Sequence to fold (986 residues):
Amino acid sequence: MVKVAIWGSLRTATDGQSEVEVEASNFKQLLDQLAIEYPALKPQIKRGVSLALDGKIYRESWFTKINKDSEVVLMPYMVGG
Amino acid sequence: MALDENGKRIFKVVGTRPPRPDGIDKVTGRAMYGADATAPGMLQGHILRSPHAHARIKSIDTSEAEALSGVKAVVTAKDFGLPDDESVLDVQDNCMARDKALYDGHPVAAVAASSAAIAKKALKLIKVDYEILPHVTDVDEAMKPDAPIVQTGRAMEDLPDGLSENVTYHFEFGHGDMDAGFAKADKIIERSFKTAATHQGYIEPHACLASMNSDGKGELWCCTQGQFYVRELCADIMQMDASQLRVTASEIGGGFGGKTTVFIEPVALALSRKSGRPVKIVMTRDEVFRATGPTVSSSTDVKIGMTKDGRITAAHATLRYQGGAFPCGTVQFGAQSAFAAYDLEAVQTIGWSALTNRPKEAAYRAPGAPMAIYAVESVVDELCQELNLDPLDVRLKNAAQKGTKSSYGPTFDDIGLKATLDAAKAHPHYAAPLGPNQGRGLSCGFWFNFGGNTCVSMNLNFDGTVGITEGNPDIGGSRASISQMAAEELGIPYEKVRTIVADTNSIGHNDVTDGSRVTFAVGLATIKAAREAIKEMCTRVAKIWDIDADAVYWEDGYAKPSGPNAGTFDPMSLEEIAAISAQTGGPIAGHHEVNADGAGVSFGVHLVDVEVDPETGATTVLRYTVFQDAGKAIHPDYVEGQMQGGAVQGIGWALNEEYIYGEDGLLQNPSLLDYRIPVASDLPNIDTVILEIPNPGHPYGVRGVGETPIVPPLAAISNAVSRALDLRMFELPMSPPKILKALSSKV
Amino acid sequence: MKNIHVSTTINGDPTEFICNPDESLLDVLRNRLGLTGAKEGCGTGDCGACSVTVNGRLVCSCLVLGVEAEAAEVETIEGMANGEKLHPLQQHFIDGAALQCGVCTPGILVAAKALLEKNPNPTDTEVRYWLAGNLCRCTGYDKIIKAVQSAAAEMRGA
Fold:
């Protein structure tokens, strides 16, 4: 299981939990699993999310490997100027 | 792609300051910008814009305009389809209003004619029947439940009671126990701040030249930060295949985030399709101000608790941003970045975003961060004053570092904030004496930076020179830095490399030039492409020497046998290998395609001295020093240029620049006379100190540098002015009338 | 309105054109003569990107009528280099990285050249006030001022 930190305003989609656990070994599995277990997260995942893995921000990269003890933080999709 | 293990390598080309490849074209007037292109039979396109802040379009009668001699096409929203994707439809609606004009300057129709004079005359013949609707331009007003609704059906999911349907987004970030944190504080300060919307202010107005053929093929020349994104948007809007629309990015006369979308390009394509002729559209400055760009305007509450010795115990911010007439998520970046510079046990940020009758917000350098960090750094400065603490010491005491759980969630890797603060503290600027009516301010700044989709193609010519094809418009000297990285990796002189920015049919997709990504991501792909070309060169040489490919290695521009066991051979240069490449298997190339990650966040600290004239309220910037972590400065001149240019844009934001709307909802100052950006005589030299804390996610340690420098000036100058006046300022810009007003209220 | 025939000299070359009586010199240069080095940043004389000289006087060509070029000597960015030899200002702008996007650069070079012709040894403050009519959004002006001063120093020494 991988622990995923959920940002504040998304916590209504995770029954108020700031951290959820899902079975995943890469980002694709993680996002798919999140969408299955917490369907209310789907709209945001569709709008776009970034994932921070051990402090490094990834914008897409489905096949990025996640270790069991990795720090995973769900973040809004990043853009810039 | 991780930092090279030989992170301490001695660079030969990287870190030098060679002349930029586009230099001569730009100093002789030969460089071709958006408005500089022409085509045979070209028509002039002009756009009719709403004179109202908010109005229903009951009907548009274009018949008289169409009948005018010389008019070849008129288009309105009826000439566009309805794209399935809501975000694309928003872009299209922003380019051409459908049912309602949503802001002063919103396009409602466009004309293509044989001359500009005829086109302008035709615009006057178009009859639009408007039903004027109530409007709202202020973010706090727009959030109230009885506010005029800008667009129905766009409210956020689960809209809380007591908020207007204009509220489109809500974000929350943070961690820790806020109540416990504030309970530990010796001093708590809670303040509210406002910042005005500002414009990116690129000197080149938007311009494009579109040509649609009857066989469905299209050509588009335009000034943009991202030709591929322009192609995707325009192909969607025009309902054509992406492969049939070739978009070529002209030289770009500034962007700063404002040229990351489309405004006139779909209109020019539609006019060209309808008229069967090439159509050029060039915006006036008035159009640029009224209908492109600006940033969000903001209204923010910040509450911070601190112990007597300067430790922050808890920090809270509520941010309210308006991003114009279409949903805009920029407040999320403000909410994420507000407290990024601090190592906090208890932190919470809440962001709200609302629709208003203003032009759609476009990204501007570190979008969303400057106004959030302005409010936070102002309160930190006031706490330092109240508790009689040195503001740099307090920042150092609370600074985020490797291992800090950031205010937006992830744990930081190697970051340069403390080193940057130390450099500021050690700098003579920090100890220099101040005179009467003078004040010194400082602020930290932060931006995430990112990588993104990137393609680079590198080709070795038979004469031993190298061509690099990449797909990101060069807005700050990136062709030079990319050539440097290629030369470094290949071990050849910089002068042997030429980098060009290709059109959309000449290379694979590249994300927009944004997010401070180009030197990082295109550089990374260039290094990978070079390593691929090197591998191929070594393979060819191994065949010549009749040894294993593994027994050949590359060093300083030569293929060499790897040791005595490999045999004794004279090293072969890139030039020699390229010259016989036809005989050894054909042209040699390297390419790399990647969605780059690991950009590495960027921190900066700005130090500024100002003098405020109590008679006039005018602020003079006396001295300015920028400290920033660049990871590795590839071309230090252009790193400094980013630091200086960003700082000056921030100075303008702090002191003068603002969108001023009247009671009628119309923009009062859509000209460079009334919207005053800093001029040379307003400014001192901008001193720079580059720090290099390598980014673990890039082979040379590069971090993006372009956006962070606009973040600190807002608070740094506000803190300096507040200290000079001995009166805390809460609103930007601090233009002379506002300073006089604040002074008059001082008891 | 009927077009008017104008005889003028541009960058030393005798030049003839026709234009509308209300057409700006900038539009004539860009649209009729192919001299697109001067840029239109505002059309109201606020940004200086269209700077040229008319009879040695620095002007915003967006505020000058094409017909005013009659019998005048007009100098634009295209005439600044002497063949392959760049003017010292042009060279120092490249060497000193005094441009980023480059769209303000032609106007700033024309303006700086006009300054150095009047005042070969300006102070930084004089350079800053002279160039106050030329907006640059990329550089923060720092490297521009330094490049003008290093070019001025070279020109004084030459």
Remarks:
- Chains A and C do not touch (no CB pair under 8 Å).
- The radius of gyration of chain A is 12 Å.
- The helical segments of chain A are 27-37, 42-47.
- Residues 27-37 of chain A form the longest helix (11 residues).
